[in-house]
Amino acid sequence: MTVIQRQSELISAALTCLKKEGYKGLSVRKIADEAKVSVGLINHHFGSLEKLISAAYESMAGGILISLKETCEGEITDPAKRIEVFIRESFNPSILDPDLLNAWIVFWGMTRYSPEIDKSHSLTYASYLEFLSQLLGDLWRQDNSTECNIRLASISFSSMLDGLWVESCLNSHAFKPEDAVSICQAWIKGFRAGMFAS
C-alpha cells in the first residue's frame, strides 16, 4: 500500500468515527481500530490527531465541492440552469445527512483552538465562496451591465444554505428539501432583481 493510499484510508476511518460518534469519535485509538492499524501508524503518517482531523476536514469539504462542481458544470452552460442545479444538489439526500453534521460540528468546534483546523476551514471556505462567486457572477452578468457586490452576495447565499442545511439535519420535520429549494430560488430572484447591486 502506498503512502497516499494509507493516508486516504486513515482519513476515511477518521471521518467514519466522527460521523458515527461526533466528539466521542475524536480518538486516535478509535480511529486506529476503525482502520485496523496501530496508533503509531497514525502518528507516523500525520504526526498528530489534529493534522489527521485537518486532512479529514479538507477531504470531506473538498469532496462535496468537487461533486457540486461536476454536477453544475460539464455540459450546462446557462448560468440560471447551473444555479438551479446547484441549489437542488445542495439539498440532495447524500448532503442532507445528519451523520455529516456530527463531523462538521467537530470540525467547526476545533477551529477555535486548532491552528491546523482553522487553516483548513479558511481554505475550504474560500474555495466554496470562489465557486459561488463564479456561479452568481455569471448569472448577474447574463442579466445586467451594472455593478454588483458578488462577494457579499456569495457570503449571504452561503450563510442561508448553511442555515437551512443545519436546521434540516437537526430536525428533518422542520421543512421539506423542496421548501429549502424554494427559499433559495426566491433568494436568487431577489439577487437577479438587484439586491446586491452597487
From TrEMBL:
PROSITE patterns registered for this protein in UniProt: HTH_TETR_2
Residue ranges of domain HTH tetR-type in the record: 4-64
Alphabetical list of InterPro entries matching this protein: BetI_C, Homeodomain-like_sf, HTH-type_TetR-like_transc_reg, HTH_TetR, Tet_transcr_reg_TetR-rel_C_sf
Superkingdom of the organism of origin: Bacteria
Assigned keywords, A-Z: DNA-binding, Repressor, Transcription, Transcription regulation
DNA-binding segment(s): 27-46
Gene Ontology molecular function: DNA-binding transcription factor activity; transcription cis-regulatory region binding
Pfam families: TetR_C_6, TetR_N
Protein name, per record: TetR family transcriptional regulator
